[in-house]
Amino acid sequence: MINEPSLTQLGSWRLTAVWNVTVATWIGNAAAVLSGPWGAVTRRAHQSGSSRTAVYTHAQRVVQAVTREQAGGPSYDALWHENERLKAENAALGQAWADAEELSEAKQRAVAGSGCAMGFSLSQIVTLCAIVLPLGAVPSRAMVGRWMPAAAAPARRLLVGLDLACQARVRGLCLDEIFRHREPVLMAIAPHSRAWMAGQRGPDRRGESWCEVSPHWPALEHIIAEGGQGRERGVKLAKAARGAQDEAAAPISRQARTRGLDVLHTQRELERVIQRQWQHAEQQLDTASQADTKGARYKRQGRDPRGGSGVAGRAWRKAERLVDQAGKAPEAVQQIPAALAWFDAQGRLSGRQTAQAQLDEASQQLQGAWWHKVKRLLSDERTLRHVDRLRAHLPAAVSEPVLRDA
Questions:
Q1: Which of 62-66, 107-111, 308-312 has the least mean pLDDT?
Q2: Is 337 domain-assigned?
C-alpha cells in the first residue's frame, strides 16, 4: 500500500524545488517573459523543465528584486544583520527577565502598605502590582485587604511618636465632628496649617468623649468650635483635669485657653434659616391658593362663600407677611459676613466695638422665631474672639506703633 503525501509534505517539496532553481534559470525565464517573441514562454518552459506559471512567477520576482535594488533601500545583508542583532537582544532580555529577582511577598506587602497610606484603594494597589509582576504572581484584592492590618500595626506605633512631637507645637485647634455610617468621628484641625491633628471614632458626641481628645495638647492656647453642648462640656472637663498640671508646666502652657465660635457654622445657620423661611412662605402661598380655590368652588355650588373668603384672606395676609420677612432677611444677612471679616470695607483692621455694632444692627432686622439661634450666636462674645486675638498678637508681630498703624 502506497501512502499519499500530505499537504505539508507537498508544500515542503514545492519550497525545496523553488529554492533549488539556479539564478541563471530565473533570469532566463524573466528574459523569455519580458523580451521573448511569441511562443518563447512555452519553449522556455520545456527547456527549463518548469511550468508556464513558474516561468511567469520567476519573471515577476526578478522584476521585484531589481526594483528594490534600484530604490536604494537597505540591502539584504544589512537587514539580515539587523535581524540577527534584534534576535540576540531579545534573547538577552528574556534571559535577564528570567534571572531577575522576583518581587518577594515582603516587598509586595510594603508596596501595598505604602499605597494604602497614600489613599489608594485595594483595586488600585492590585493594578499597580500587576504592572511589575507576572500575571500568575499578582496578589488578589482579598489578599491585599488581609495585608493591611499587619502593615497598620507598626505604622500605628510610629504615628504615636510623631503625634507626641506634633502635639507639643499646636497652639490653636478647630474642633468638629463628621459622621461615618452614623458613627461620629471627633476631629481636630490646626487652623493655620489645616492639618488633621486628631480623629477619634466615637463612641458618641458627649463631653466625656471630647475630653479624651482635648488633654493631648499641652501647649494649646485657643480653641475654635461651634457652640455644641458636647464640645463645650468636653473643653471644660479637659481644662479642669489639666488645672493642676498647668501650674508646673512651661509658661506657654500656663496661658489661659480662650474659646472662639466657629464662624463657618454661623454662616451655614444663616443659609439654613433663609432656606427654611422661603420654604415656609411657599407652603403658606399654596395654602392661600387652596383657600381661594375652595371659596370659588363654594360660589359655583351656590353655597355661602363668606366663611371661605375669610379663611383665604387670613391665609393671604399671613403669606404676604412671610414673603416680606423672607425678602428682607437677605439684605440683613449680607451685612453679617462683612462684620465677621478681618478687615472692613476701607481695608482697616476690624475692631470688636465696630463689628459688634454691625452685628447688632443686622440682628434687629431679622424678625421671627427662626432667627433665635442666629441672634444668640451673633451676640455671643466668642463670635468676635478671632478679632481680639489678632489685635492682641499684632504688637508682638510689629513692635513699632507707626508701622503697626500703617
A1: 308-312
A2: yes
